[in-house]
Each structure stands twice: as structure tokens, then as C-alpha cells.
Amino acid sequence: MTEEELEFRDQNDYISQYRRVIDYFDAACLGLTATPALHTTDIFGMPIFKYSYSEAVLDGYLVDHEPPYLFKTELSQVGITFEKMRK
Hints:
Helix content is 40%, strand content 0%. By secondary structure, it is an all-alpha fold.
């Protein structure tokens, strides 16, 4: 697809196109994701099995990490605002 074609695609178009491909083939479909998006259940249906990060840590498959340090700055507290330009 060209960049112009990608600009005009929306979420519903993406889901319907993907769903059409899956439905076309008469085969079992297995969807795996570590980062589920809102459209994941629209395409694959509701999950039949979930394995969480904390379960994987407890089972010894992943190593837990410390939470990141949070540095507070004026920018992170106040944000950026822009004034309307004058002509």
C-alpha cells in the first residue's frame, strides 16, 4: 500500500480486512500477543487462555524488575502550552 492509501484506512477497515482473510481460509487460527490492542478481540474473539507477567515471574520464566525511577520536572508537571500566533 502507498502512504496515501494508509492515511485513509481506519480501525474498522483494518479489522474487516483482517477478518475477511481469516474467514477465507478454512483452517484453525491461533492468535498470540504480548501486547493486546483493543481490536485483538474483534479479530480473534475472547481469549481462551491468559498467562500474565506476574505468573511468568512466579513460575521462573521471567525476571521481575524494579519500577522505574520517576523524575519530576517542571515540564512533566506543567506540560507544554502554545499561544495562538498573531498575524
